[in-house]
Amino acid sequence: MTPGHRPVVAVVSGTASLVRAAHDLGVDVVLVHAGAAPAPQVLERVESAVAVAELSDHEALHAALEPFHRVRRFARVLSLTENGLLPAAVVGDRLGVPGNPSRAVRLLKDKRRMRDLLNARGLSPVRARPVSSSADLAAFLGEVDGPVVLKPATGAGSHAVLRVDLPGEAEDAWRRFTDEGGGDPVAEEYLAGPEISVECFSHEGRHVAVTTTDKHLLGNLVEAGHTVPSSLAAEEVDRAVNLVRDFLDLVGLREGPSHTELRITVAGPRIIESHNRIGGDKIRELVRRAHGVDLVRLTVGAALGLLPPLTEPPPAHGGAAVRFLTPAPGLVRSVELPRFEDSRTTVSVDVGPGDRVKSVRRSEDRSGYVLAEGADAAEAARVCERAAALVRIGTVPDRAEEAEPCAMPS
């Protein structure tokens, strides 16, 4: 295709992988990024790049993109980043570009509104309510008569997510929540049971489950690893997938990837939260290795008719797993990495001697990861965990770090 006949998309806060996928499929890209952020490293692959002061300023974003749209109509306004999802949907609505409606994206971004809708429809009911003080939190704990989870209604990355077991712990939990910058707090009953996520891909309102992911959590609910596909019994997977399909229909999601987290409780699967993007924490790579599906490439290609959409769940050709490194908090004195002859195992360490390791309170506090694949999910998990045990990150106590034991997997 020659320029002018090629489709064009706007990419808001674009990941390099999304820009590359569009470019490789013969799609022209107008890239929008936040002005305060460093210029993206993929500018040579875009037709135009535009900086706006704040992506959340929808008026400014619309003003930046509308002139391009007048000249060459956008086929889509896309984003796969948490801070770009809603701006892309809002501007897409205003420009009349096909895609996910902003109402659907707002519901997925706001855990309180999402929960209210689910409870009103009797779908995956969970007791929940907004709280504005430690007294509110203590009162809710008394009503639930069990543990609750305190979290920001619009948070991500396990930021300021706290489990609170007893009313007497409410004041301390509230202080930690505010100290960690938590806002717009909502409390929900704690859901006991295995946690999974369902990775879906939607096209014209039809939702296909690409895979299910077993999630491994630290005691404070920060994710410690993932394994694809899930080891749950087939009937449990079917219940979870059917619930997620009904949920995505309810919120009105039309196309692209989604990542929905659930707990498998004695009363059945219960939705925790969902996002109209690919799951983080290397889930995209796990899906590629286990199922041979490139979700980023599919995001562009299926929407523009350049690739066939998924019509059935893709078979698993093996398993894949990731485990995150969570050394004891303190100053790093040494890092020892094993040497793997098998190219199917990848190790990435984000710290070195002299760096400070924090107590793991959010995803960003982890120190790296090990990713592996195997003949099936169980083998991939075994290989990954053995490899992670061989990575030695030596730390010594640091007075600047709170004296708090490192969170252990739940």
From TrEMBL:
<dbReference type="Pfam" id="PF18130">
    <property type="entry name" value="ATPgrasp_N"/>
</dbReference>
<keyword id="KW-0436">Ligase</keyword>
<feature type="domain" description="ATP-grasp">
    <location>
        <begin position="115"/>
        <end position="304"/>
    </location>
</feature>
<dbReference type="InterPro" id="IPR040570">
    <property type="entry name" value="LAL_C2"/>
</dbReference>
<keyword id="KW-0547">Nucleotide-binding</keyword>
<dbReference type="InterPro" id="IPR011761">
    <property type="entry name" value="ATP-grasp"/>
</dbReference>
<dbReference type="Pfam" id="PF18603">
    <property type="entry name" value="LAL_C2"/>
</dbReference>
<dbReference type="InterPro" id="IPR052032">
    <property type="entry name" value="ATP-dep_AA_Ligase"/>
</dbReference>
<protein>
    <submittedName>
        <fullName>Biotin carboxylase</fullName>
    </submittedName>
</protein>
<dbReference type="Pfam" id="PF13535">
    <property type="entry name" value="ATP-grasp_4"/>
</dbReference>
<dbReference type="InterPro" id="IPR041472">
    <property type="entry name" value="BL00235/CARNS1_N"/>
</dbReference>
<keyword id="KW-0067">ATP-binding</keyword>
